[in-house]
Design a protein that fits this description.
Helix 4 packs antiparallel against helix 6. With 301 residues, the chain is an alpha+beta fold. The strands form four sheets. Strands 2, 3, 8, 9, 10, 11, 12, 13 and 16 form a nine-stranded antiparallel sheet that branches. A three-stranded antiparallel sheet has the order 1-4-5. A two-stranded antiparallel ribbon has the order 6-7. Strand 4 and strand 5 form a beta hairpin. The chain contains seven helices and 16 strands. The protein is globular, with a radius of gyration of 18 Å. The chain has one domain. This is DUF4846 domain-containing protein.
Length: 301
Amino acid sequence: MRYCAGAAVALLAIYTSNPTEAVQVQATTASAAAATQRTTAAPSRYAWLPARTYDARRSVAARIAPPRGCQRVAVAPGSFGYWLRYLPLLPAGTAVRLHNGKLKDPQDVHAAVLDIDVGIRDLQQCADAVIRLRGEYLFAQNPAQIHFQLTSGDDIRFADWCGGRGFQVRGDAVVSVPRQAEQPTHAVFRRYLDHIFTYAGTLSLARELTAVPLTDVQPGDVLIRGGSPGHAVIVLDVAVEPVTSRRYVLLAQSYMPAQQMHVLRNVWGDATLGAWFAVNPWETRFSTPEWTFRSDELKRF
């Protein structure tokens, strides 16, 4: 039941993010104070970093400037888009590694590596990474909102899981089984996700999401091809050129085998764009370094 090449995914039911507030870390007293506030609040927002010091200067927003002449779209504080914009990054030049510690091949398709674990099993592949990010966001907001759909269509709620109701896959059927009740800690959440990753795929994720025009892309949207093989990448951020209203997207992915999530580098278009990809309304396809999507394959939670 495990699907690969990005088809290994769980489906997470979530709400749509609304973009509002342009952000950029600037070297001023006011922004430094704001960065300090974000640093203090970070452990509750990025729960996998409880023992580390979050530094907004090493976030997506601080490290990756928008294309020349563009500005980031507005995102509401507390929204999924805002959360994605301030995800922590590992130091510049970090290589992407697989779940087993080996180097990803190739190493020339990423611009940065997200500071988030991949696990030790070959589970957190492409759409699983999308679900991991959305799930982590919801965990920070309200764990009771978390629920994912398996490829079978069965909906598995984190609250039920913690409350003592698990599941087993028996042939083509998913059967509810009792399990020990646990507190909704982050460690329990990660174990729950590994079970979801095992029995879900890009097919279910694509089926559950709502198609939106690529020209209306927002942070948190997903480019996805459901199936086996399939693939999914998440839109971390969006920038716009004020005069032409042309949009540019910042994308992140995991892949197969399971590997560290990484910000993609634009290897197909204008080299000056770095990690940004231009959204061209007249094109029927949208190419990323390791997958080409149709322009109608953008979807939203």
